[in-house]
Design goal:
Number of helices: 8
Mean pLDDT: 76
Helix content: 40-55%
Structural class: alpha+beta
Order of helices and strands: HHHHHEEEEHHH
Strand content: 5-15%
Shape: elongated
């Protein structure tokens, strides 16, 4: 016999009801429109819960109380978002990787940090280097150059030049320090 635990993952396997309807279900089992109907039903059930029950659901989900000032409406919206995210499979690996990169750049206060420099999927980047044109296709999961996939433009720039380069700078995606200062002065 195992001792009782307050761990949410243990609760999922113990048969206890989850604080959020549908919590603990297998993320990978999707049955299309049945999932959508189920999520809609679960969100409707959130509307019938008391504010105290919603706060308890938040606490069990996040292992901390909801932020002060969170209204009942915001609690319902946040819990509904969690249900919808779970049904849709959550964020993609590419998006998580991009967010981690942006967070790291922000922490370093990098001069090249600009979340707007990431070109949209399907964009073609072209660079002339030593008399030869190089074309890179922006994909959901990174970049494609000469039929191979890469996670980083810097790796591609190094392959082209043989030396370490900032990939975004090599392909002209960053603002120059002087140019950004001049733009700020014009404002």
């Amino acid at each position: 016999m195992t001792p009782p635990t307050d761990d949410a993952t243990a609760r999922q396997h113990s048969g206890e009801p989850s604080p959020i309807p549908g919590r603990g279900s297998n993320r990978t089992s999707r049955s299309g429109s049945a999932d959508i109907i189920g999520v809609d039903r679960q969100i409707a059930e959130l509307l019938d819960r008391s504010t105290q029950e919603l706060r308890l659901a938040w606490r069990q989900l996040h292992r901390t109380g909801p932020p002060q000032g969170f209204s009942r409406d915001l609690l319902i919206r946040a819990l509904a978002h969690q249900l919808q995210e779970r049904a849709a499979g959550g964020t993609s690996q590419a998006l998580r990787r991009r967010l981690q990169t942006l967070a790291g750049e922000l922490e370093k206060r990098s001069a090249s940090f600009d979340p707007g420099i990431m070109p949209k999927t399907g964009t073609t980047l072209v660079r002339q280097w030593r008399g030869r044109g190089h074309t890179v296709l922006v994909r959901d999961d990174g970049f494609e150059y000469e039929g191979e996939r890469y996670r980083s433009l810097s790796v591609i720039a190094k392959r082209i030049t043989g030396a370490h380069w900032s990939g975004p700078r090599f392909f002209g995606l960053t603002k120059r320090a002087g140019a950004s200062a001049a733009a700020e002065a014009r404002r």
